[in-house]
Amino acid sequence: MGNNLTRRNFLAGSAAAAALAGLAGCSTGGTATSTDNAANKKGNGYTETATDYGYTIVDNGDGKQLSYSPDSGLKLIEKDGYAFKDFEGTGELVPYEDWRLSAEERAEDLAGRLSIEQIAGLMCFSGHQSKVEDDSSVTDEQKQFLDGNVRAVLNAASAYPAFKQAAWANNMQAYVEASENKIPINFSSDPRNGRNCVDWPGNLALAATFDPEVAKRAGAGIAHDLRRMGISMFLGPQTDVASDPRWTRFSGTFGEDPALSRDTCKAFIDGMQSTTDDNGNDVGWGKDSVAAMVKHWPAEAPGEGGREGHKDGGKFAIYPGKNFEACMIPFVDGAFKLDGKTGTASSVMTSYTIAFDQDNEYGELVGSGFSKYKVTELLRDRFGFAGSACTDWAVLNDPGAGMATCWGLEDTSVWTPAKRASKSVSVGVDQMGGCNDPTLLVSAYNDMKEELGEDKANENFKNSAKRLLLSYFNTGIFEDPYIDVDATRSEVDKGDDATKEEALSDQVKGIVMLKNHGNVIKAGSESAKPKVYVPMRFSKSYRAAGFMGGWSETPSACELPLSDGTLKKYFDVVTDTLADTLTGPVNEKTGNATPTLDDLTRLTASDIADVDYVLVCAKAPSNADPRSSQDEDGNYVPLSLQYRPYTADSEYVRQTSIAGDPADGSKWAEHESAKGVEIENRSYYGRTSNITNEYQLDQILEAAALAKEAGKPCIVILDITQPMCVHEFESEVDAILVSMSGSTEAACRIVAGLDEPSGLLPMQMPKDMVDVEKQLEDISRDMECYTDVDGNTYDFAFGLNYSGQISDDRTKKYGVDPLTKLAD
Fold this sequence. Notes:
Oligomer: single chain
Distance between the termini: 37 Å
Keywords: Glycosidase, Hydrolase, Signal
Largest sheet: 8 strands, parallel
Helix content: 25-40%
CATH architecture of the domain at 511-543 and 553-623 and 704-814: 3-Layer(aba) Sandwich
Family: Belongs to the glycosyl hydrolase 3 family.
EC number: 3.2.1.21
Number of helices: 21
Organism: Tractidigestivibacter scatoligenes (Olsenella scatoligenes)
Signal peptide: 1-32
């Protein structure tokens, strides 16, 4: 496959394609129980075909294909020789049932027919649905929120085979189709690269290709797999400019440069949202489209000290460089201005964080989902975004009630979940992420009716319904919500070899070679596998903060850093020996003993005398609490990008934080502004980092020393998710490759000489932690970068190939000063 990848190409040459041809060319149909289409012909031209999965396919010839469950009670309407679904049950075709009309016309019509209770259901986005029953049935919990009119469901069941997810989606759709409210379910997914689907590069790896066409191909490929699981909305891409190197969600972004992020984001969404014809032409929205919900508006990355908004410690975003506008560039000039025919991203998700400023320059001191400035004034009025807006998850919850992110509205004596929902809706947000309870939205409606009057409250709710329904009509799930489980098993679970190879090829494009001293990495051949020593990776036990809070112990472990099959695919491998009987403490979860260093026997210099090189696969430094950046006593500590302990005591460390809660224990919602209010000090000055895998550095240095003793080169593959400091080991090793939320297998291909590296850094690699402290949280590319022993500086857009530093059209286009202003 070339650059003109289409979703139809995924079917080419597959057994599924032949089966689908028997179902009138349908890619979402099912195995027919009868293929006598002439006998099934209805009216003037459409045909019905039953499937083995309990639903029926309606072939409308040159019209839209339908699918429905005969057991649901839904009937068809014939008009002008075509079939339409009778959602209303009247036998008369109304506008929203007519697939010949535009999505806008249909959404407008249906929004006007819904009750407030039904709209309230649309305005809820379910919590994570992570488990699929053995029989893929609908659970009692799911029936409860579906009966409450919830129709946006988060499929977080990526651990299950795709065919099971497809079967569950069918059962869920049949359940709502049999109810009074027959609006189909809009299933969504967070990014799930490689988890029971094709392993396309992650966002940061896509950015490292500096090639938007690769991102477009990945968007199309991801959409292909998601649609075959019944998923029609993607909670992404993460469109934030990663302006602070310490931010733990850096890997989900397209890097730290606004222009590169803009172009990569735009191309990715075009690939995801646009259906293409057999010739690769963009036909706009269609049955292969997945609606993108870009996040996190208007910016999430500038958390003070690199902290992150899921936790109280990271709830403040700051703008010491006054660079607020630049952080919106990938949204406004990218996601909202697509080159493809869908025109704009379908939806946005608001950020958790409070944009902090003493003078309220960025609006009220509340999270973005409650902010009139960010949603009403910016998103809707200034930038004219007409799609739906959804909060990030759990912003309605009270503090202490599991996950809760109601920043700015934490005071439970004033704010209830219903009041928070009312606040969010009042500023123009349409949907509440992680909310299964529509009564909260009914309460929001009643508040709005009391404050604004019934007519205005109705108008606001109808407008939200219309915006939300657009993605349902655009993706065609009103017509054809059911999935061919056999096709899913064949196309996704088994997969197409050509597609997998193309995804791996694109993974390779996202690998960056930082160092290649003496050209130790060079062209090779598949017929001659290099012999390599791969040290086993030993991880000491450590304590770390959980995602939902609390601290827990992770036991020690020792294993090959890559699967044995992957390594042997490219190398003749020798490695260390782990004792059969381990002597460490028992793992309480497994009941098995854990390893100690005494259980590990490393190879010696004489043992590796005949290898071609030593290959170390290393994980980047990992902070014990990367979101709040606190210790177990609640003290703020620095987030570090190096392995060894780092004490934040230089002149560049803030001794007084810019942001914090009021020192008197009040909440910001009680104050008109922060001006003159004494705030708590969240500084980490004088404290030391808490890195859980410092021993990784020891293993790199020990392997490098062993390689020198044996007279062999040492190559390091760094698996990183954000910038890191390499000064601790760079001079001791011969070559460094970085894999950024991509594939370490792709890096192995480069080490083996099967592919020449071409990736470029979509970020800067800092000289040291003092330089990290100098940079400002909201400014891109403002660090002094590390220069290695060969004289190469690891700056944005740096990368090596066999000939040396890469200089091409990509570096000329993006290797300029970063943008700071939106386009006119």
